[in-house]
Write a structure and sequence with these properties.
This protein is mainly β. The chain is built from one helix and 40 strands.
């Protein structure tokens, strides 16, 4: 938890923790066209007066607090200015946030289909008495046996946990069918875990003693409550994928209503945590679903320029797949030449290649772009392929992958199981390197083949 997050947590603004800071304003790095409820905050000062203005957007409610909410225009950038008057001295903070087109949800895809820039924690218990809900759409009409989650704590950084971590109860609840899609408050099944820190139980499998059959397609919640008699002294955090861009949808392959993190402080109202995606596996008697990506290697991006290229190498398992588009998430660093997206068999035989213009990328932030092919192609079952990204040497793009949690117990059904991310600068392809280990094969690019 960085200094901004510590400030936000102290101020009770947990929903903003993790936001990037731009010239003193905590604001998402990217928003969607027409998005409402965009939150921005400057550090609060005793006795200070705040005056916010916005260009290419609209302020909602009061504009004289340390935190404001605004909406975005349909394109361009949202420009925010906050003038803080304290002790007779005026300080001006400014921030500009690019606006991206709204992406259609593409639930049928082949790939990782997921975006993230880092991890972010949500406290269960703690000084604010936080309660957390993981909202999900059930995949199967069969009993839910249990789930696997990601608990996080730190011996060196504050804000993640304290004491022995407390006792966490997990209640399975139905959705209340309101427009906000909140938990009903009535437990259909329950389980609990204690001694999380002592057991080093970062990725425990939580089993319901009495599994309950769910209705496929319906919304449910896993609600995490700290039962410790002193939850402010003994608490733990859940860790999620975090995307600094707060877009609609949050992920391009699933509707926001169907996979989200909610929290509330004590008995306060439930709120969705923007930018958060649950790291969660749901285990039924007939299969599993969820997101098993549990780390983001954004601190080690690889360039795409000239001889430097990145790719996803994969062999199709299961049925053959038809595609007309590839969704990609990466950043444009410099230059104006297009990105070349090449699909080839492992021996180099070309399937097809297209170019994505540099104008599709937004300045200073990773964003999703679409590579559209002129005709449909088939990825044949059992055949090895490469999805290769390149550009001329006068232009630099960059990409970083998501780490699969297969070695942490997550099922292959919660990640892309057929391949891994690679890069080259010399013509020799190798797996990503991270934490001092080269040639890793447990990460995927942020991509999706769609029909």
């Amino acid at each position: 938890m960085n200094k901004l997050n510590s400030f936000l947590a102290t101020a009770g603004l947990l929903a903003l923790a993790g936001l990037p800071v731009q010239a003193g304003i905590a604001i998402p790095s990217l928003v969607s066209a027409g998005m409402t409820g965009i939150e921005a905050v400057v550090p609060s000062q005793t006795g200070a007066a705040y005056n916010w203005t916005v260009a290419n957007g609209t302020l909602a409610g009061l504009n004289r607090n340390a935190m404001v909410t605004c909406s975005a225009g349909t394109s361009g950038s949202v420009a925010l200015t906050c003038t803080v008057m304290a002790a007779g001295v005026a300080t001006v903070f400014t921030a500009s946030v690019p606006v991206a087109p709204v992406l259609p949800v593409t639930p049928f895809f082949y790939g990782s289909g997921c975006s993230a820039d880092s991890l972010a924690n949500t406290v269960v218990g703690g000084p604010n008495g936080s309660v957390v809900s993981y909202r999900f759409q059930a995949k199967y009409t069969t009993p839910l046996k249990g789930c696997r989650v990601f608990f996080i704590w730190s011996a060196t950084e504050g804000g993640y946990a304290a004491g022995d971590g407390g006792t966490v109860r997990v209640d399975l609840m139905a959705d209340d069918h309101s427009p906000a899609h909140l938990p009903t408050g009535t437990a259909l099944a329950s389980t609990s875990i204690t001694g999380i820190i002592a057991q080093a139980a970062y990725y425990p499998e939580l089993v319901f003693p009495q599994p309950v059959a769910l209705q496929g397609g319906a919304l449910y919640h896993l609600v995490f409550t700290n039962l410790d008699p002193q939850p402010a002294a003994n608490y733990i955090s859940l860790d999620d994928l975090y995307t600094r861009a707060q877009t609609a949808p949050m992920q391009p392959t699933i509707a926001d209503a169907n996979w989200a993190v909610l929290y509330r402080a004590g008995a306060g109202p439930w709120k969705v945590r923007p930018g958060h995606t649950p790291t969660l596996e749901l285990d039924y008697t007939t299969g599993s679903q969820g997101n098993g990506y549990m780390e983001v290697w954004s601190t080690n991006p690889k360039p795409i320029s000239g001889a430097a290229q990145v790719r996803e190498a994969f062999t199709v398992s299961g049925p053959s797949r038809t595609f007309t588009k590839v969704l990609l998430r990466l950043a444009a660093t410099s230059g104006t030449s297009p990105l070349t997206v090449r699909v080839e068999e492992a021996d180099g035989t070309l399937v097809d290649q297209v170019q994505v213009p540099s104008s599709d990328f937004l300045p200073g932030v990773s964003n999703w772009v679409t590579a559209t092919f002129p005709v449909a192609h088939v990825l044949n079952s059992g055949v090895a392929y490469n999805l290769t990204l390149s550009s001329p040497s006068d232009t630099v793009y960059s990409a970083y992958p998501l780490r699969k949690g297969l070695d942490k117990g997550f099922s292959t059904s919660t990640v892309f199981p057929d391949g891994h991310a690679q890069f080259t600068t010399t013509g020799t392809w190798v797996g990503w390197d991270m934490w001092g280990t080269p040639g890793l094969k447990d990460s995927d690019l942020q991509f999706a083949f769609v029909d």
